[in-house]
Design a protein that fits this description.
CATH topology of the largest domain: pyruvate-formate lyase- activating enzyme
Protein name: Heme chaperone HemW
Family: Belongs to the anaerobic coproporphyrinogen-III oxidase family. HemW subfamily.
InterPro entries: Coproporphyrinogen-III_oxidase, Elp3/MiaA/NifB-like_rSAM, HemN_C, HemW-like, rSAM, rSAM_sf
Domain Radical SAM core: 8-242
Function: Probably acts as a heme chaperone, transferring heme to an unknown acceptor. Binds one molecule of heme per monomer, possibly covalently. Binds 1 [4Fe-4S] cluster. The cluster is coordinated with 3 cysteines and an exchangeable S-adenosyl-L-methionine.
Number of helices: 16
Radius of gyration: 22 Å
CATH superfamily of the largest domain: tm_1862 like domain
């Protein structure tokens, strides 16, 4: 691995991502690594747990004794797995890794897969943050999105999670849905707010390649209506005390997702499970930094077979080269409303802030950046047109070579 021409004061925080690839039914908008198995499927819990632990063991030499600050279990639908599955997983994690005393442990859950009483088991296993995939409270919208739950299921799941002792709950909610009006979008937000979530991820439906919706697109609201939904929704959430801190993330003070903040601040993370991605930094004896991205076998059956394969679970890896680093860093940091200080830009990219600043005048003139030479921070307009802003930053950085 080639070294990046900069030195760092220590390594970034370290997180762990665990992927559970199965779901009851693949949603037509979903481009994640998820595989529908139908209701009542007999999942290979024991085999998958054994593979995860073997996968983890192979990663441990890469992190030494670094402390783990957060764990995120995503999918797929991780709530298809039993509480016992996670209890056994966390028992091993606690013996093989150094866990922060206040570690954040998030589980994604689908309201349509939860048996009564399962939340108590998850909480007892050590999960302390729940992310409920609500998407909408309107039954018609849920049907159009291919979801397996109804709006009442989501409300019941939120109530049961509170009774189980969860005091850190995120709701995933979508807007810009087929046939959605501003009034319907606000109704969804009001129902979400009635559950008093600590965190809300509110993002627009997009038609991603390799999805059913991409090949057979539904009729979505016109652009003018989408802007109205975003403006009214943002006002409604902020008035309710949920502050926007990332493009599509709102939280009560102090309740931002630590795991996602680590991604956006260019922290490190291990990735275990089918198709999981990881990013790891290391320094050589000269103190130079190396960054590697690696990913695991994607198909669940192939991933399980890798437990008997001398190649292990890693399906591919790539080095982050010096010329790639500025744009990679900007793609993450500029998702944050606060952006990043120019001092942090220099520390993470090795690029002189003064040279970059001189080339960012077109972006500032277009109103895409906040008028503060000490920060690289998207304006509200820049957050709406982040891709355009990133292209301009990439071109500006290329001009510094």
């Amino acid at each position: 691995m080639s070294a990046l021409s900069r030195r760092v004061d220590g390594l970034p925080p370290l997180a762990l991502y665990v992927h559970v690839p199965w779901c009851v039914r693949k949603c037509p908008y979903c481009d994640f690594n998820s595989h529908g198995v139908g209701h009542g499927a007999d999942l290979p819990e024991a085999d998958y747990l054994a593979a995860l632990l073997q996968d983890l063991e192979a990663e441990l030499p890469l992190v030494g004794g670094r402390e783990l600050t957060s764990i995120f279990i995503g999918g797929g639908t991780p709530s298809l797995m039993s509480a016992g599955f996670y209890e056994r997983l966390f028992d091993v994690l606690a013996t093989r890794l150094s866990l922060a005393s206040d570690i954040e442990v998030t589980l994604e859950a689908n309201p349509g897969t939860l048996e009564r009483g399962r939340f108590q088991g998850y909480r007892a296993a050590g999960i302390n943050r729940l992310s409920l995939g609500v998407q909408s409270f309107q039954d018609g919208q849920l049907h159009a999105l291919g979801r397996i739950h109804r709006g009442g299921d989501a409300i019941a799941a939120g109530d049961e999670a509170r009774h189980a002792g969860f005091d850190n709950i995120n709701l995933d909610l979508m807007h810009g849905l087929p046939g959605q009006t501003p009034a319907l979008a606000l109704d969804d937000l009001d129902l979400a707010l009635s559950l008093s979530p600590e965190h809300l991820s509110w993002y627009q439906l997009t038609l991603e390649p390799n999805t059913e919706f991409h090949s057979r697109p539904p009729v979505l609201p016109e652009e003018e209506m989408l802007w109205e939904i975003q403006d009214l929704g943002h006002e409604r959430l902020e008035a309710a005390g949920l502050v926007r801190y990332e493009i599509s993330a709102y939280a009560r003070p102090g309740m931002q997702s630590r795991h996602n903040l680590n991604y956006w601040r260019f922290g490190d993370y291990l990735g275990i499970g089918a198709g999981a991605h990881g990013k790891l930094s290391a320094t050589d004896p000269q103190g130079e930094l190396h960054i590697e991205r690696r990913w695991k076998a994607r198909q669940p059956e192939a991933y399980l077979r890798r437990s008997e394969d001398p190649r292990g679970f890693v399906a591919g890896r790539t080095e982050v080269e010096e010329e790639e680093l500025p744009l990679e860093f900007a793609m993450n940091a500029l998702r944050l409303v606060e952006g990043v200080s120019m001092a942090d830009w220099e520390a993470h990219t090795g690029r002189p802030a003064a040279t970059l600043e001189a080339r960012l005048l077109p972006a500032r003139k277009k109103g895409l950046l906040v008028e503060d030479g000490r920060r690289l921070q998207a304006s509200p307009q820049g957050l709406l047109f982040l891709n355009e802003l990133l292209v301009m930053i990439g071109e500006a950085d290329a001009g510094t070579e």
